Amino acid sequence: MNVTSGRLTSRTMAFVLAGGRGSRLKELTDRRVKPAVYFGGKTRIIDFALSNAMNSGIRKMAVATQYKAHSLIRHCQRGWNFFRAERNEFLDILPASQRVDESMWYRGTADAVAQNIDIIDSYGVDYVLILAGDHIYKMDYEKMIRHHVDAEADVTIGCLTVPREEASAFGVMAIDEKDVITSFLEKPKDPPGTPDDPSVALASMGIYVFRWDFLRDLLTRDAEDDNSSHDFGNDLIPEIVKNGKAQAHRFEDSCVRSVPGAPSYWRDVGTVDAFWKANIDLTDFDPDLDLWDKDWPIWTYSELSPPAKFIHDEANRRGNAVSSLVSGGCIISGTEIRRSLLFTQVHTNSFASLEGAIVLPYVTVGRHARLKNVVIDRGVHIPEGLVVGEDPEEDAKWFRVSEGGITLITSSMLARRDADS
Question: What tens digit of pLDDT does each residue of 41-92 get?
């Protein structure tokens, strides 16, 4: 079937997989799932997948949750509650709720969809777009769905172009001259190059497009297979590559850029170092990720808060911020801030200094504190005079210091420090 007119996104639902913890973010996911982790001063990670769907014209969405989902569910209820059922729009939350069997939670990414077949049936859609809810990027899904239909594929997989030497960390596609996938390799030691450029490989983004009738049948058969791990990457995709037609869709063909010719931007902020760097990069003079683009906005829940406030103008006690992002509700009282990103309602006190700091909401920084290259979790109270980022060995006694030298600070870490002092 070759459809040549009309927006395909109007006949598509987006199914966002948001149940995984994201354990490489360490204590940042102790209380929340990875897609609910804060990013960029105002947003959560999941907002990027949802905003891409919204901006692409998709008005039917579902978010499958499992691990510590309260923060994510609350965020979606508050920030994504503008859909109107009378216009056939919705965003449904689908927690793992033992709907199929009282002993069965979501067993894998494919099973998370399979357990909700009856719900998807009720949406009356032709296409299903499977999305990971834990990456930072801008993408026009309409272009990918159009590619899928025009290629008459059974599945179309969103792919990143990465240097071959870096591709071993991904699921990698071997393709022919028409970008048809000939094999799917999970984290290969020697990734295959592409026909047009052997120095690069195509890595899976965890984004898949299916016709719903095709996927429904595939999921039903997979659910009955006791030898399956019920996962798209491990089971369903290799099956289609072997017995059907799997098409690769290159991210650069549908990446949304604010400036023509700009490099495509995609980040997996799955480690403390990657999370810190992606946030800090936003403080650059001309960041690669444009959060100011009104043509492709990142929708989110915006808490009502007053403007940021900077107070005191005395020697060694001047509230100022250079090359930094400071969100609403922040009070910068006699603190020097450089190359940092402060979320909502952060309050800092006199004679403190922050450099390379990612500070999540509702943090208080005490007087004379000096913090460098840190990530501070939500609601932490930094005690007066605390120094972090100058002595890694001392920091590691109380806090988590990453391989890249970034120090993660949480309330429980400070409580242990206080108890041992």
Answer: 999 999 999 999 999 999 999 999 988 899 999 999 999 999 998 898 999 9
Q: Is the dihedral of CA 48, 54, 58, 63 positive or negative?
A: positive
Burial class (CB in 10 A: 0-12, 13-18, 19+), 288: middle
Residue 3's Cβ-side half-sphere holds a number of Cα atoms within 13 Å equal to 16
Tokens representing 65 are: 């949750």
Number of alpha helices (DSSP H) and beta strands (DSSP E) in the chain: 10, 29
Distance, CA of 399 to chain centre: 25
Per-residue model confidence as pLDDT tens digits over 336-377? 999 999 999 999 999 999 999 999 999 999 999 999 999 999
Residue 344: Cβ within 10 Å count:
22
Question: Among 295, 289, 297, 300, which Cα is nearest to 328's?
Answer: 300
Q: Classify strands 347-348 and 136-137 as parallel, antiparallel or unpaired.
A: unpaired
Sorted by sequence, the CB contacts under 8 Å of residue 354 that are 6+ apart come out as 335, 336, 337, 338, 340, 348, 365, 371, 372
Beta carbons within 10 angstroms of residue 261's beta carbon: 5
User: How far is residue 352's CA from residue 334's CA, in Å, rounded to a whole number?
Assistant: 7
Q: Would you list which residues are annotated within the binding site?
A: 106, 171, 186-187, 204
The answer for residues whose C-beta is within 8 angstroms of residue 93's C-beta and 6 or more apart is 62, 63, 65, 73, 76, 77
Tell me the CA distances in angstroms from 317 to 333, 349, 359, one per residue in order.
Answer: 8, 9, 20
Residue whose tokens read 């690669």: 288
List residues forming the annotated binding site for alpha-D-glucose 1-phosphate.
106, 171, 186-187, 204
By the 8 A CB rule, do 344 and 360 touch?
no
User: CB atoms < 10 A from the CB of 19, how many?
Assistant: 24
Phi, psi of 381 (to 5 degrees): -105, 110
Please say whether the dihedral angle defined by the alpha carbons of residues 246, 247, 250 and 256, taken in this order, is positive or negative: negative
Q: Which residues contact 219 (CB under 8 A, 6 or more apart)?
A: 110, 113, 114, 117, 236
Give the C-alpha separation, 187 to 173, whole Å: 10
Residues near 242 by beta carbon (within 8 Å), at least 6 away in sequence: none
393 in helix, strand or coil?
A: helix
pLDDT tens for 97-141 read 655 554 567 888 999 999 999 999 999 999 999 999 999 999 999
